[in-house]
Each structure stands twice: as structure tokens, then as C-alpha cells.
């Protein structure tokens, strides 16, 4: 399972990269705005800075909603670095653009996916990744993990190569359940990734080992 970090914060991206388990980064316009990144030159420079840190795919989202401008924006983003994956919303014009990018060999991430029908369309258009938002489905009392299961079944039925990128991950249990289902990728905050480290028995056990060692050494 690939681990992507879902942030535009360079410090957090560095911390995850330094841990040695990072496979990529996803961003979106809200995450860029949260870091105060506005205006085209700053946005472009920020994507370049992210690409310099991470070994792996970096999703950069278009903000256009019509085919011509999605293509124009996406092609410019893809030229920045081979790591860039053009993130395109699941709308009619977006599906057409994904098909176009796919024929040009440009990697895509179809975002804002909330149903298996949308995921089926993304795969048929040739998306590299599909991003079902499981946390946001849970927020409205819908089974986000159930959607990952359904998409896995559908994609396996037809051997679609589109990778399931479980997005809107909120906590450790989401990551574990996605791994059990067989999501190809998960993208989540640094807190969820670091949360995988934690177990009280690990902390207690280590404290005991160190105390016993110190006692035996006469410290
Ligand atoms: O990048 C898209 C997705 O991961 C957003 O997550 O937490 O804003 O629902 P969230």
C-alpha cells in the first residue's frame, strides 16, 4: 500500500519523507490556501518545492471547470515536473479532460469521488488514480469504507489499472481498514501516519527494557 501525505505544508512533507515511508503527496486548493499560497507564481513555485522534497507522485489540482481550461491548466502543471499528477474533479468536463490527459500520457487523479458509479467512469476515462473521500462520507453518516470495498470489487472484475487512492482519511483505523480491503494508496494527514506508530504496550515495554538495562548496569 502506498502512503501519500495530504497536505501542502512543506515541514510536514519533509517529516514524512524523512520517516522513509512516503510515496507521494496530494494537495487541493483548500490545503494550498491553508498554507497561504495564492497567486499563480506562488502556487507554481510551491508545487516545485514539494517535488524537490518528495520521491513520488505529487497531485496538483486544477481550478478550471471547463474542458479547454482544465486541459490548458493541467498541461502546464504536468510540464513542471515528471512527478506531477493532474488532479481533476469528477465532473463531465473533468471526465473528458482525464480521457484527453490519458491519451497524452499525463498522469491524473480524479478527485471528489463519492460513489462507485463515479469511480467506474474515472476508470473508463483512464484515470491513473481515483480519490474516493471516505472521511467526508462518514461525516454525512454514509459508509466511506464500504465505498472502497465496492470500487475494489468493480475494478478487480474488469482489471482496471486505475489505482484506488483512499482520500479524506482521518485516523489510523481508516488506514488499516483500507489496507485490509486492498486500496492501492491512502492519503492522510501526518497525524494519521504517525498514529500508526503508537501502542501503549510498546511505550511501556521500552520503558521497562531501558530501566532493566540501567539497573543491570548499576546506573
Ligand atoms: O485531498 C482530498 C481529501 O483528502 C480531503 O480530505 O479531510 O478535507 O475531507 P478532507
TrEMBL record:
SUPFAM superfamilies in UniProt: Aldolase (SSF51569)
Record pathway: Carbohydrate degradation; pentose phosphate pathway; D-glyceraldehyde 3-phosphate and beta-D-fructose 6-phosphate from D-ribose 5-phosphate and D-xylulose 5-phosphate (non-oxidative stage): step 2/3
Matches recorded under Gene3D superfamilies: Aldolase class I
Catalysed conversion reaction: D-sedoheptulose 7-phosphate + D-glyceraldehyde 3-phosphate = D-erythrose 4-phosphate + beta-D-fructose 6-phosphate
Enzyme class: transferase
Organism lineage string: Bacteria, Pseudomonadati, Bacteroidota, Sphingobacteriia, Sphingobacteriales
Residue ranges the record marks as coiled coil: none
Keyword rRNA processing: no
UniProt function note: Transaldolase is important for the balance of metabolites in the pentose-phosphate pathway.
Main location: cytoplasm
EC numbers, comma separated: 2.2.1.2
UniProt keyword Lipid biosynthesis, yes or no: no
Listed name of the protein: Probable transaldolase
Active site residues per record: 87 (schiff-base intermediate with substrate)
Signal sequence coordinates: none
Keywords: Cytoplasm, Pentose shunt, Schiff base, Transferase
PROSITE patterns: TRANSALDOLASE_1
One matching Pfam family: TAL_FSA
InterPro entries noted in UniProt: Aldolase_TIM (IPR013785), TAL/FSA (IPR001585), Transaldolase_3B (IPR022999), Transaldolase_3B/F6P_aldolase (IPR004731), Transaldolase_AS (IPR018225), TSA/FSA_arc/bac (IPR033919)
HAMAP family (UniProt xref): Transaldolase_3b
Places the protein is found: Cytoplasm
Family: Belongs to the transaldolase family. Type 3B subfamily.
PANTHER family registered for this protein in UniProt: FRUCTOSE-6-PHOSPHATE ALDOLASE 1-RELATED, TRANSALDOLASE
Amino acid at each position: 500500500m502506498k502512503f501519500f501525505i495530504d497536505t501542502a505544508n512543506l515541514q510536514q512533507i519533509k517529516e514524512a519523507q524523512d520517516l522513509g515511508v512516503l510515496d507521494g503527496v496530494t494537495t487541493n486548493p483548500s490545503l494550498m490556501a491553508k498554507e497561504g499560497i495564492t497567486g499563480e507564481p506562488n502556487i507554481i513555485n510551491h508545487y516545485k518545492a514539494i517535488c524537490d522534497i518528495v520521491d513520488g507522485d505529487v497531485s496538483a489540482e486544477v481550478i478550471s471547470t471547463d474542458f479547454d481550461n482544465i486541459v490548458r491548466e493541467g498541461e502546464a502543471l504536468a510540464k513542471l515536473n515528471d512527478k506531477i499528477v493532474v488532479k481533476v474533479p469528477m465532473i463531465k468536463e473533468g471526465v473528458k479532460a482525464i480521457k484527453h490527459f490519458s491519451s497524452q500520457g499525463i498522469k491524473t487523479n480524479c478527485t471528489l469521488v463519492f460513489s462507485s458509479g463515479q469511480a467506474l467512469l474515472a476508470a473508463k476515462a483512464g484515470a491513473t488514480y481515483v480519490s474516493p473521500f471516505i472521511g467526508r462520507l462518514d461525516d454525512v453518516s454514509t459508509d466511506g469504507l464500504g465505498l472502497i470495498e465496492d470500487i475494489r470489487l468493480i475494478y478487480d472484475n474488469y482489471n482496471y489499472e486505475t489505482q484506488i487512492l483512499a482520500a479524506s482519511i482521518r485516523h489510523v483505523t481508516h488506514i488499516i481498514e483500507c489496507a485490509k480491503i486492498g486500496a492501492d494508496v491512502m492519503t492522510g494527514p501526518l497525524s494519521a501516519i504517525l498514529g500508526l506508530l503508537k501502542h501503549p504496550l510498546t511505550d511501556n515495554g521500552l520503558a521497562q527494557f531501558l530501566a532493566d538495562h540501567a539497573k543491570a548496569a548499576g546506573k
